Amino acid sequence: MAKVWVDSTLVSTANVSGGCGVLEQAHFGLYASPTLSSGSIYNDDLRIQEVSVCP
Q1: pTM of the prediction?
Q2: Cβ–Cβ contacts within 10 Å for residue 43, how many?
Q3: What is the per-residue pLDDT across 39-52, written as a single tens digit (0 to 9) for each?
Q4: Phi, psi values for residue 44, rounded to 5°
Q5: How far apart are CA 19 and CA 24, in angstroms?
Q6: Rounded CA gap, 9 and 12, in Å?
Q7: DSSP 3-state helix, strand, coil percentages of the chain (rounded to 5)?
Q8: Which of 33, 31, 32, 29 is nearest to 43 (CA)?
Q9: What is the CB neighbour count within 10 angstroms for residue 14?
Q10: Percent of the chain scored above 90 by pLDDT?
Q11: Which residues does residue 13 pair with via DSSP β-bridges, in sequence order?
Q12: Which terminal CB of the chain, N or C, has fewer other CB atoms within 10 Å?
């Protein structure tokens, strides 16, 4: 399971399948409609941490 916190508040969770203790990819960016003319992303103090692995 992947979980995302913002300022100590859980904002997103997702079941993750496949792999066994290996982070295969991560994206912290902007998905937007082609009609969006501009956008800003700020990723400060980003931490990715594995908290359990398969036996």
Answers
A1: 0.53
A2: 7
A3: 998 888 888 877 76
A4: -100, 150
A5: 8
A6: 9
A7: 0, 20, 80
A8: 29
A9: 8
A10: 22
A11: 3
A12: C
